[in-house]
Amino acid sequence: MMYFCLICHAPYNPVVSWQHVLTLRKPDILCEKCRRAFLLISGEICESCGRPFQHLDSSYRQGSLCIDCIRWQENEDWKDVLTKNRSVYLYNDFMKEVVSLWKFRGDYAMVKAFQDDFSCIFFQHFDDTFLLVPIPLSAERLYERGFNQAKALAELLNLPIHDILTRHHHEKQSKKSRRERLQTENLFQLAEPISLANRRIVLIDDIYTTGTTLRHAAKVLLEAGALSVSSFTLARG
Amino acid sequence: MRFIIENNRLIPEPLAKERWEEAMPINCFEHLPSFPIYPHFSFSAELLSFLEGKQLLLDELPFPIELLQAHYEQGYIRYEKGITKTTKGYRCERCGNGEAHFFASFFCARCQQRCTYCRKCITMGRVSGCTPLIVSCIPVKGQTYDNALHWHGTLSSGQQSAAEAVVQAIEHNEQLLVWAVCGAGKTEVLFPGINRALQLGKRVCIATPRMDVVLELAPRLKQAFPHLPVIALYGGSEDRGKTAPLVISTTHQLLRFYKAFDVMIIDEVDAFPYSVEPMLQYAVEKARKDPSSVIYLTATPNRKWQQDVKEGKLKAVTIPARYHGFPLPVPAFEWCGNWSKAVKKQSLPRNVLAWIHERLVGGKQAFLFVPNIELLEKIVAILKKLDAKIEGVHAEDPARKEKVAAFRKGELPLLVTTTILERGVTVPNIDVAVLGAEDRIFTEGALVQIAGRVGRSAQYPSGDVRFFHYGKTKEMIAAKQHIERMNKEAAKRGLLNTK
User: Fold this and answer.
1) Lowest mean pLDDT among A171-180, B16-25, B100-109, B415-424
2) Which residues on chain A are in Cβ contact (under 8 Å) with B13?
3) Count of C-beta atoms within a 10 Å radius of residue A210
4) Most A CBs within 10 Å: which of B13, B107, B120, as the mutation test of the A interface?
């Protein structure tokens, strides 16, 4: 059978080892070259937001936290809103291209390329007692894209998904500066009034950039009684 | 977008007053009704001009759905299916893809069901089962331009006869292959033909597989036709959405056109990826009007093209001589033993090293072509011991542009390269060698193009072309014969300088 790489579409010979035969694991859907281009976050990271310290100037770091997280903690409104964030891949040029093709061009099928790593890393930091909440899109954006990328990621985990948030339509986040993002009013609300008493929650999203979106969502969930809100994203910008 | 059918007409879901629960994706309808043009309708000139000669997605049309629907009901536009079902699976009507591994499906928020989409042309916006393609029913009309050409150069006699053949083909809506050697000056050959087309009110498109060729051609054509609207289309181009009597486009951007051109000129027909991608063939067929002419330009037609010409299936005209009238340098073959074994031992065959040494000492710049990136890196490491300024380039080299620019400026004595530099790069006064000319990547076409790098300028019309090999191949022999045949024909037709 002929295999074509899910990303570069080139024909390739999948590496099949004894492990695949014994565990019935499927061979990789990516060619070796594309697979190698995904870089998992490893080594020392910011305890709070999961940002890798490697290649980060030491002036952006204080102890186990990065400067950005310290700033969040110094702000009365946002202190401890997000318990922690963990991310799977470095947001390098390759990753940016892949995410753009997947999310903006709308090549849904690319999500399968993330499956193994996304699931594996998730269970290193969280477990099935957490409530899985994907970051929603506004109705307008959802129609435009055809699918919600955060939900597509959540579906990779084979756990129940709780679509309990909705989002107002607003101009694109990526066009705003950090300051503007901080000042915008909360875009999220609960889809219906529910109590989240004593529940620990993991928000799922594609990219953690400044962490503002995730904190806005977390705030709504905390106000509904959640015990804690963490987040898990595909990449750390 | 979902639709309902009411009184034998399609109604988009947001405009349906009732029965919206029956709405279905467009590919679920067996037959899509369309209407004759109602002449008294006060149409939107803006919409029709935007859509002229195009086949677009709703997302690409900055007009409200109500306006589109009115034009549909009055017969001015048509809805078409983006994806159709076939006996084997699916077919993308925009790009012609029918290969199963280029389709995927997802739960679509637009049609609220599983929806199949084409992954092949996804960079142009997603076409899925519920995607309508919007087409104008008004035939594209051209405007006549009487004296658009303001070019004061002269054509060589080889160029002149080819230019006349191009004019003929355009006047009679015929197909023509212009087989012009590297350095013949094929762009100028098009000028009289394009001028004639404009006089006849024909629309012209020059399509090429590569964006850098679009960027190089556009200013030259704008200069030759200074008062004519000319647009250049490529990914990210600012001319998107515009129309003009002369369009220069990558083959990808051509996918948005529909029965738009009376003259299709396809540059470098043999260049990757045109010849291997049926999508681009599909794009050309869709974008041209019926009838229309197609002019193919190439220096290196593949065997199939050459065969078709021989059998008289395809009209062709050759320009066997360069514009400066000097013959093409003929490659010399030189056996160099098991060179890959030598590379493993961090060395190169003695005669190859001697060739390079001669160039370094004599101060003549040269390209050394090698079969692949892996070898390139090893060979560059070996050669850097001879001269640290020797560099290597390949397709994925981020410093590619800088290195080529440095070579042009004469800062690098030798550039080791993969086949990426086989086309387009013109540096005066250089020699060229191929190491491992027997490798499969060096086809007749590639070798002819490589040899074509030498002797391009009138000041330095000759140079050395050396194919180092470990066993001659048919491709090598065919390349040499190809070049010799062209020189012979040029001499016979009196196109060479006689001194």
Assistant:
1) A171-180
2) none
3) 18
4) B107
Between chains, do A9 and B109 touch, taking CB under 8 Å as contact? Answer: no
Give the pLDDT band (50/70/90) at residue B305. Answer: confident
Q: Which chain B residue is nearest to residue A11, measuring alpha carbons?
A: B101
- Judged by CB atoms closer than 8 Å, whether chains meet at B110 and A143 is answered as yes
Residues of A in contact with B109 (CB under 8 A): 142-143, 145-148
Going A145 to A223 to A88 to A183, the CA torsion angle's sign is positive
pLDDT of B211 reads 79
CA distance B61 to B85: 26
Give me chain A's average pLDDT, please.
90
Q: Give the number of A-B residue pairs with CB atoms closer than 8 Å.
A: 40
CA-nearest residue to B100 within chain A is: A4
Task: Quickly state the pLDDT bin for B127 (edges 50, 70, 90).
Answer: very high
Distance CA B357, CA B363 (A): 10
Q: Quick one: closest CA in B to A142, which residue?
A: B109
> Taking CB atoms and an 8 Å cutoff, what residues of chain B touch A161?
none
- Is the model's pLDDT at B165 over the cut of 70? yes
Specify the amino acid at residue B443: T
- pLDDT score for B210: 77
Hey, which residues does B430 pair with through a beta bridge? B365
Between the CA of residue B231 and those of B244, B247, B254, B410, B463, what are the distances in Å? 6, 5, 13, 34, 38
CB spacing of A105 vs B115 below 8 angstroms? no
The b/e string for B159-181 (b: 16+ C-beta within 10 A; e otherwise) is bebbbebbbbbbeebeebbbbbb
In tens, the pLDDT along B350-408 reads 999 999 999 999 999 999 999 999 999 999 999 999 999 999 998 878 888 889 889 98
Q: Give percent above pLDDT 90 in chain A.
A: 75
Contact of A28 with A5, CB cutoff 8 Å: no
* pTM, 2 dp: 0.87
From chain B, pick out residues whose CB is under 8 angstroms from the CB of A146.
106, 108-110, 115, 126, 128
How confident is residue A170, by pLDDT bands cut at 50, 70 and 90? low
Angle made by CA atoms B288, B98, A99, in degrees to the nearest 5? 95
List the single best residue of A108, A110, A149 to mutate versus B (max B Cβ within 10 A): A108
Contact assignment for A146 to B102 by CB distance below 8 Å = no
| CA–CA separation, A110 and A61 (whole Å) | 34
Measure CB to CB from residue B106 to each of A9, A142, A147 and give the nearest one.
A147
Rounded Cα gap, residues B479 and B444, in angstroms: 5
Quote the tokens at residue B490. Answer: 């040029």
Closest C-alpha among B72, B66, B61 to residue B35? B72
Q: Which of B77, B134, B58, B124 is nearest to B97 (CA)?
A: B124
Q: For chain A, what percent of residues have pLDDT higher than 70?
A: 89
Higher model confidence: residue A13 or residue B461?
B461
Residues of A in contact with B102 (CB under 8 A): 9
> Nearest by CB to A143, which of B101, B109, B128?
B109
C-alpha distances out from residue A217 to A85, A88, A168, A186, A203, Å: 13, 20, 12, 8, 8
